[in-house]
Specification:
The protein folds into 2 domains: 209 residues, Rossmann fold, CATH 3.40.50.620; 79 residues, no CATH class. Helix content is 55%, strand content 9%. It binds tryptophan (TRP).
């Protein structure tokens, strides 16, 4: 039996190139090596206010995007968090094992709650990492592919697991982060910042139309503010994209031209745009086809939930017994 991997992604709208090259592409590769369980974490999404119909639509949209990007329901388990109630059940048990102080010290919590009145932020924001720990531990997963920004949350997961094991007996394995060297994609119009859906003009959606891709790449910032020797961040970003989508000889040619200072950025941009379009077109087409068959998406998600639930139920049973919640 291969090692079990778990990861989650929030359904918060647009999936862009940064999400794809930073995470999703990795998920696709991992499904060929491990027993992978992937979850659309809609309970995490409601830690900040959401419009109900938009949240629901975002889940379907994200599922279509992930499938179009290459997640294969024959090779991995893909499901929606709210379809497997064991996550939230375990989350409560773990909440009772977690010190408030440790939650209050989480960087992400501090960032998100900063400047906010304690009476106006939901406790869900504080307890967010416990639910994440429950997501992972309910499957006794050992590997968790995540971005560096999640290391502190994984640390907390390990602490909680250890505390549980010490209190109730050996139950959970040691959890490790899987930090594969993913490409870090920067904002096209502000290349010192990460590509983000909250910076307009900064991103290219995974399902973006070719004309729009051309326009956005054409407008990408290449100039550098300082007269430094280094490659301007916007140019480095174009190279990142080229390396992700073009064959090596194309990359080599532009690298040489850059070194010889004969490079023409208009040509570099054209190459980036055309290779991006070639790489993304099959994804966009699969996405569009899936969106026309919501029944098929729903069937995949409910089969995924069923598979996940089998494991989650058995593990929760064991956990409840250990905690004394089975009384007959
Ligand atoms: N917190 C993660 C993020 O924002 C999403 C997430 C929720 C997750 N549960 C998880 C990631 C479990 C890995 C494992 O990216």
């Amino acid at each position: 039996m291969s090692k079990r991997i778990f990861s989650g992604i929030q359904p918060t709208g647009i999936i862009h190139l940064g999400n794809y090259l930073g995470a999703i592409k990795n998920w696709v590769d991992l499904q060929y090596k491990y027993d992978c369980i992937y979850c659309i974490v809609n309970y995490h999404a409601i830690t900040i206010p959401q419009e109900a119909n938009i949240l629901a639509a975002n889940v379907m949209d994200l599922a279509a995007t992930l499938l179009a990007a290459g997640l294969d329901p024959e090779r991995c388990t893909l499901f929606v968090q709210s379809d497997v109630p064991e996550h939230t059940e375990l989350s409560w048990i773990l909440t009772c094992l977690t010190p408030v102080g440790q939650l209050e010290r989480m960087t992400q919590y501090k960032d998100k709650s900063q400047g906010q009145n304690a009476d106006s932020i939901g406790a869900g924001l504080l307890c967010y990492p416990i639910l994440m720990a429950a997501d992972i531990l309910i499957y006794k997963a050992e590997g968790v592919p995540v971005g560096q920004d999640q290391t502190q949350h994984l640390e907390l997961t390990r602490d909680i697991a250890r505390r549980f094991n010490n209190t109730y007996g050996e139950t959970f394995p040691e959890v490790e982060g899987i930090f594969t060297k993913a490409a870090k994609v920067m904002a096209l119009n502000e290349p010192t910042k990460k590509m983000s859906k909250s910076i307009p003009g900064s991103y290219i959606a995974l399902t973006e139309e070719p004309d729009s891709i051309r326009k956005k790449i054409k407008r990408a910032v290449t100039a550098s503010d300082a007269d430094s020797e280094q490659m301007p961040p916007g140019v480095a970003n174009l190279f990142t994209l080229l390396e992700s989508f073009a064959p090596q000889e194309v990359v080599d040619r532009f690298v040489q031209e850059y070194a010889a200072q004969t490079i023409r950025y208009a040509e570099l941009k054209e190459a980036v745009a055309e290779h991006l379009i070639a790489g993304l077109t099959p994804i966009r087409e699969r996405y569009q086809a899936l969106k026309e068959q919501p029944e098929q998406i729903k069937a995949i998600l409910s089969r995924g939930a069923e598979q996940a639930r089998k494991i989650a139920q058995a593990n929760l049973q064991e956990i409840k017994e250990k905690v004394g919640l089975k009384y007959y």
